[in-house]
């Protein structure tokens, strides 16, 4: 079992005060390529617990040059019926919403810039989205544009407005994934808040191996090691505060929760506290195959002998195992983020991404992270 070390430091972050409302949304991104991972890393649509999510965002579809939606992996999405299987989850939970997520980090910004700037392409995108929803029995789309630039601000909100107007007769949902900190140059936040059903705030990737020292992936609050700019920007509480102060209705915001951690190689295994020197990213995991990140499932399967420390200021754990250091989330920290959403009257939480949860209960509970989120949202 993982050894747990408690590091107690008094936390002094203030909560955002808002009017009361329902905090009930659990928006679960499902990375479809999880179905093709080896061994215990394999996670198919049938493995999704339909009763623990309110929305399943199927990642990812793309856009053609004319604005129409594009299937990116025909084998996974169509031949192996990934889309059909996600839609079928609604038979288990009739209240579940199946959502197409368009874009993602790898898609870049150019295609969205081109489509949003052209009225014909915007209309094509809206019509294509409706047709896709009808064909595959989905309930809407999520626009994951990473990231709109200064020149995209007006076109971005025009695109979202036209999509929502086209969707309204059908009752389709429109959500977006956005940067942790809103920039006025790229985001018209009040207009977005008026148009969208949910704004999924990516409150993670605040630190990684690029930092040169160990730091948390998704801290809820600021660290005493942070400088002024970091305290104001590189934690979930600051991010949500920025969005609200920029004009977002809290009831449209979902705080992001990461089911993975950023992984570092320690320069010296004996120096393993926060802020310890790092020589770079840790090697790729057996399942996620990405240097510098590890899924929660990989920590459970391959690093049970590591030591977990709890950071009581940032309200997240970290793990060290020889020269490996990982800032991640566990059931306790994701539960605190769900509680934060309730305390601050947010729409709910967004998860990236459920296929790296502990499907096989190697840390003790099947889908422990998602279960903790669900339990704390009650």
TrEMBL record:
Superkingdom: Eukaryota
Domain GH18 per the UniProt entry, residue ranges: 24-378
Gene Ontology BP terms: carbohydrate metabolic process; chitin catabolic process
Keyword hit for Lyase: no
InterPro entries the UniProt entry points to: Chitinase_II/V-like_cat, Chitinase_insertion_sf, GH, Glyco_hydro18_cat, Glyco_hydro_18_chit_AS, Glycosyl_Hydrlase_18
Position of the signal peptide: 1-21
MF (Gene Ontology): chitin binding; chitinase activity
UniProt GO cellular component terms: extracellular region
Keywords: Disulfide bond, Glycosidase, Hydrolase, Signal
Family label: Belongs to the glycosyl hydrolase 18 family.
PANTHER family: CHITINASE, CHITINASE 4-RELATED
UniProt protein name: GH18 domain-containing protein
Native organism taxonomy: Eukaryota, Metazoa, Ecdysozoa, Arthropoda, Hexapoda
């Amino acid at each position: 079992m993982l050894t747990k070390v408690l590091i107690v430091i008094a936390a002094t972050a203030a909560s955002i005060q808002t009017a009361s409302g329902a905090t009930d949304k659990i928006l679960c991104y499902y990375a479809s390529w999880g179905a093709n991972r080896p061994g215990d890393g394999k996670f198919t649509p049938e493995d999704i617990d339909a009763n623990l999510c309110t929305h399943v965002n199927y990642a990812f579809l793309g856009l053609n040059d004319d604005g129409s939606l594009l299937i990116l992996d025909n084998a996974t999405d169509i031949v192996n019926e990934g889309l059909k299987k996600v839609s079928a989850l609604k038979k288990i939970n009739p209240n579940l919403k199946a959502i197409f997520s368009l874009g993602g980090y790898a898609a870049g910004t150019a295609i969205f810039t081109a489509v949003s700037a052209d009225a014909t392409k915007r209309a094509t995108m809206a019509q294509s989205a409706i047709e896709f929803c009808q064909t595959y029995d989905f309930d809407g789309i999520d626009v994951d544009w990473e990231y709109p630039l200064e020149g995209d601000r007006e076109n971005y909100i025009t695109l979202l407005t036209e999509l929502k107007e086209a969707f309204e007769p059908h009752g389709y949902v429109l959500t977006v994934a956005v940067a942790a900190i809103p920039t006025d140059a790229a985001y018209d936040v009040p207009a977005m808040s008026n148009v969208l059903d949910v704004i999924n705030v990516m409150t993670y990737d605040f630190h990684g191996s690029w930092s040169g020292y160990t730091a948390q992936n998704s801290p809820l609050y600021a660290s005493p090691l942070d400088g002024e700019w970091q305290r104001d920007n590189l934690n979930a509480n600051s991010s949500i505060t920025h969005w609200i102060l920029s004009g977002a209705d809290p009831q449209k915001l979902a705080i992001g929760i990461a089911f993975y951690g950023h992984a570092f190689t320690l320069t010296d295994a004996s120096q393993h506290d926060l802020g310890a020197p790092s020589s770079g990213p840790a090697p790729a995991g057996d399942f996620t195959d990405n240097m510098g990140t590890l899924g929660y499932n990989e920590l459970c399967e391959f690093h049970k002998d590591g030591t977990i420390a709890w950071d009581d200021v940032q309200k997240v754990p970290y793990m060290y195992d020889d020269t490996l250091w990982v800032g991640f989330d566990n059931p306790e920290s994701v539960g605190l983020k769900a509680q934060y959403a309730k305390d601050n009257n947010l729409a709910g939480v967004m998860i990236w991404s459920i296929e790296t949860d502990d499907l096989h209960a190697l840390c003790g509970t099947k889908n422990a992270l998602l279960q903790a989120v669900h339990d704390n949202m009650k």
